[in-house]
Structure formats: C-alpha cells, structure tokens
Fold:
Amino acid sequence: MDFSRHNIISKIADSDDYFIVNLLSGHADILNAEEAQKFLSNSLEEKAEFIEKGYLVNPKEEEQVFRRKYLDFIDERDNDEVQLFFTPWYSCNFSCSYCFQDEYTNPNEHVSKEVVDAFFNYVDSKFAARKKYVTIFGGEPLLNNPQKKDSIRQFITEANRRSLDIAMVTNGYHIVEYIDILKNASIREIQVTLDGTEHVHDARRMLKGGKGSFNKIVEGIDLLLQHQIPVNLRMIVDKENIHDLPELARFAIEKGWIESPYFKTALGRNYELHHCQRNNQRLFSRIDMYKEIYQMVSKHPEILAFHKPLFSISKFLFENGELPNPLFDSCSGGKTEWAFDYSGKIYACTATVGNKGDELGTFYPTIELNNDMIQGWEDRDVLAIKECATCPVSLACGGGCAAIAKNRTGNLHAPDCRPVKELLELGISLYSTIDIHN
Structure:
C-alpha cells in the first residue's frame, strides 16, 4: 500500500496536533504528533482504519476512484444552474481607489432595447434546457437617470416573462431610487459593498467628485431588508482597511442586520487583476489576509457573528461534519458562468467581461462564437493543468481562477494556486475551538 497522493497533512496552528484531509476519499482526522511524524516519514503501519479511509491506497485502485468521481463531477456540473451576467453599461457614479474597469472604452454608452431582446433570445435558445438566473453587473447598473431606469425596468420585465430570478451587483448608492423597480423582480440577492465603517469606506469608495457614499448605502440596505429582499454585504479587503473589520462587524450587529434571514456577508480579497493592481503594495496575498483575520478574531470574536471566513474547506467541514465533494475545477467561466455586455459581446466570466481580447463571440447583431477559445475555457480543469497532476491540494483548490492565471502567465491552462494547506492550518485551529453554528 502507498500513501494517497491526495493526502493533505500539516500541523494545526497553535497546537501540537496535526490534521489529515483527503478530498478524494472524503475523510479527515486529527493526528497526534507521533502518528503525524510516522505519516510524514512514510513509516506508518498499514492500519485497517487508514486503508479504509483512503490515506493508504493501491495507486491503481485510487486512480479508478479518481476517474469515477471526476466523471460524476462533470455530470453534476453539466446539470448545474447557470449564472448569466449582463452588463448594461460600464458607466459608474463612483471613483473607487481600486477600480479595474476605469480604462474600458465607451463608458457613457448604454444598452438598447434591441440588445436586451437579443440577449434574452440568445438565452432562450442557448440555455433552453438549463436551470439559470441572471445577474445584472456593471459598471454600476443602478444609475439614477430615466434612460437607465427604463433599461433596468425592461430587463426585469423580460426576466419576469421567463420566470427568471435576478441578482444584482451594485455599489448600493441608488437603491432607494430603484426600490419600486426592484420590488417587481424575483430577486435572488443584491450584492452591496461596504469597505468598512463610514470614514474608511468613504476614503475608498467615493462618488466622482469625492463625496462619501456610506450613509446612503446604509439607507439602501435598511430598505432592502425591510422589503425582505436578500442582501449580500461584501467587504473588499486589503491592507488599507482590514483593521476596520471589527468596527464594521459591530456596526452590522448594532443595526440588527445579522439577525435578518435576508442578510449574509462575504469578504473579498482585493486582488491582482488587470492594470490597476500591478505592483500594488496594499494587496494581501491570500494567506496573509487570512493570517491577519485569524489573529483579529481572537481579539474581536464579534467578527464571527458578522462573517465566518472559509479558510479553504475548513468552514464547510465544521458546519457540515463532512468534507465537500472533490473539486476538479474551481473555474465556472464558460461552463456554469457566462458574461454578456451592452455591445453584444460574450465573455466567460465577470473577471474578463469588457476586457479587450477576452471576447468569446457576439450575440448581437449576429451570433458568432469563437469555438476554439470557448473550448479552451471548457477544457480547463485539474486534468488540463499539468501542475495539478502531482499537487496534493488540487481537489481542494481546483486549479484556481483561469482569468488570473491567464492574466499572470498568458496561459489559460496555467494554475492559480491556492494556499490550501496553510489555510487549513488556521481554519481547523479556529473552528475546532468554537461552536461554528452560533
């Protein structure tokens, strides 16, 4: 018997114990130091328990399990719900300090009725047999002028005709002005960004001209929750604002937001994308951001009432008492995610939409598809990325983000590696000491 190539083993942060996780077999255990050292030195006895759990394997048999579960993953993905992003314009009323769309062309143009009709006709034809919903993206989709409002109203009307749910990614500044329109949609969620409390947020996400946006966004969030419209509050984190996470947590608690069944949160890492973040010293690496959060939680446990960070698969493991299914592909672009814009172009995902050279085709004025580029996105998974073949964390990482990999290397099938082992060290330490369900 050999050690499984999918074993992830490391020391738990601030502990003498170790963990072993195997996504392919679906097992995870805590090991004492002696057992762990035998594991690491390849001298562990062939205990039936470790064979049963897939830590010790016949390599040929393990490869058969891998192929079977890979095919199951593909079958399940082919039946998954598709998220269709639509960008009606790239215009925005904000001047965020980290905007990556500020160099896109034609920022003052907007979607025409003909393009909206063409988009829904394309959806009706291309995705007829798939479960799906539409996310309105930007730029900023909720701009407060009659022409823009009419376009969003038309979009919602067409979605309602097809019984399609709508989600929206907005800076939240004009929610109040749009509430009567939003009430007429079947809203999956409204994603709104607050980068901290008022002083910190307003220094990062200001209106063009410099005026702050915090108070008006808060008013909009209150209004959405009053109307039982789901809110996904996102904080985009880097070294400039992470110190304010405890304050934002306390603010949300005091507002009563976290008590609402219509409220959830997300932490987004401000990351390396396109021109604006190159050589940017304020960016965290993935692991450094989580190390900072791990330290903050011990001093400010209220953070966990506001948001429980993933720490890779740690949160899932402790919430569900089992591991997630192996992740053979973490990039949904061109598979269960597509992006479209007002000019009639088609893209793989939100990280590429509007970026020149990333177009996969058009849906307007005619349907034209670059099938070779689309095939490249469809083929990208851990089997297509050579570095993943010998990586023990590949089934937790899934190869990472294709757009970031392509942006960094020029190769869509390069890896965007995730520090899975290091994240598990922190996450297992954190969540093994608290009741994660509270």
